[in-house]
C-alpha cells in the first residue's frame, strides 16, 4: 500500500517537472544546492583538524617529512 502512495507522489512530481518549465528549473537549482551543500560538508569533514581522518593524515604527512629530513641530515653529516 505504501508503495502505491509513494509511486503516486513520485509520478505527480515527475509530471509537474516534465510539464512546467519553472518547476523544472526550480528542481534543477534545488538539486544543485543540495549537491553543493554535500560537497561543502564532505570537504569540511576531510579537512577539519578535529576529525580523526584529518588528524591521521596530518600525522602521516608530518611523520613522512620528518623521516625525509632525518635522512637528509644524516647524509650531510657523513
Structure, explained:
The protein has helices at residues 2-19, 21-47, 52-77. The chain has 78 residues and is mainly α. It folds into 2 domains: 1-47, no CATH class; 49-78. The chain is rod-shaped, with a radius of gyration of 26 Å. The termini are far apart.
The largest sheet is: none
Shape descriptor reads: rod-shaped
Mean pLDDT: 91
Helix content range of the residues, please? over 70%
Number of domains: 2
The low-confidence parts are none
What is the SS-derived class? mainly alpha
The SSE order reads: HHH
What's the β-strand tally?
A: 0
| Total of DSSP H or I helical runs spanning 4+ residues | 3
Q: Please indicate the percent range of residues in DSSP E strands (runs of 2 or more).
A: under 5%
Distance between the termini: 80 Å
Radius of gyration: 26 Å
Keywords:
78 residues, 3 helices
Write a brief caption for the model:
The protein has 78 residues and is mainly α.
Layout of secondary structure:
Blueprint: H1 2-19, H2 21-47, H3 52-77
Amino acid at each position: 500500500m505504501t508503495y502505491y502512495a509513494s509511486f503516486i507522489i513520485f509520478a505527480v512530481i515527475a509530471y509537474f517537472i516534465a510539464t512546467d518549465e519553472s518547476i523544472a528549473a526550480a528542481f534543477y537549482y534545488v538539486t544543485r544546492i543540495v549537491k553543493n551543500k554535500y560537497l561543502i560538508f564532505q570537504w569540511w569533514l576531510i579537512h577539519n583538524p578535529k576529525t580523526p581522518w584529518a588528524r591521521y593524515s596530518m600525522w602521516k604527512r608530518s611523520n613522512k617529512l620528518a623521516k625525509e629530513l632525518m635522512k637528509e641530515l644524516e647524509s650531510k653529516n657523513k
